[in-house]
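Bug #77: duplicate submission created two jobs. Keeping one. Sequence:
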Amino acid sequence: MEEAIKQIGERLKGLRDVLNIPAEEVADLCGISLDHYLKIEAGEADPSVYRLSKISKKYGIDLDVLLFGEEPRMSSYYLTRAGQGPEIDRGNDYKYQSLAGGFRGRKIDPFLATVDPLPDGKKHNKNTHDGQEFDVIIEGTLELTIEDKVLVLEKGDSIYFDATRPHCFRALHGEPSSFICIII
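Kept job's structure:
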């Protein structure tokens, strides 16, 4: 996992170098300090899929290039077999598996997301990202906090929300929760 985070940082730095983009500009885009952004480039901080999505949209780079270092190849269809999509483990109990990574020119980014339970009293930091998000719970019970509103979602429940609002997830009942996450 640490190696994957380091490689993402290297790709971000390479992107900035090739396009001659100041680090301050990318940090501002992500809503983080320059120091924090430089730690991401150095592989010392979690880049978050949401921040990478912002960067990919702003600079016209496929999200998969930033995540996995591979250019999508398919344009008519892309099949992801169960358990075979490229995975990014954010190291903080969220895991995302890309479900359409090899499809060129995607209009949405679908993921299979898994949230592991946290020790009692611990909570995830809230994230924001551009656009909207649609989630369908496929396993477990998931607590979703959007700003100050706490929602409990069970298997089969779905939610569509403005992803610019601070939000975070938490698996309940000591069991992981999985959901299909579509970022638009």
